[in-house]
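Me: I keep going back and forth on a fold encoding question. No explanation is needed for now; the record alone will do.

Assistant:
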Amino acid sequence: MTEKPDRQPYPSETADKVLLRLPDGMRDRLKEAASENGRSLNAEIVQRLQQSLSGPVDAFLADDIEKYISGQRLDVMRLLEKAVQEAVDHSEKMSLVLNFIHRQTAADQARRDEGVDGAKGD
């Protein structure tokens, strides 16, 4: 029988293994999160455990907080875009109103001038 050459074991072969019971639905939620983060289920669980053990900040929620803030930034940008568009629309309407008032004022002044000129001619 031939012997296999000695090789270094893969890290996954030497890592501690744990059988873990999860509440219903949690495995699916973790798989979905892992997919969104581009990680395997195992890597997602390890990452989340590392975050929870990393320090005084509630690092377990760090990814969720970052996603929330990113979403808020998008919402703020949308609100700003809407506000700017409304300001532009309002400005255009105000410009039309001011032009109308200017024309009316000029027409009123022209009528007054004609009345003064007409009164002089009498």
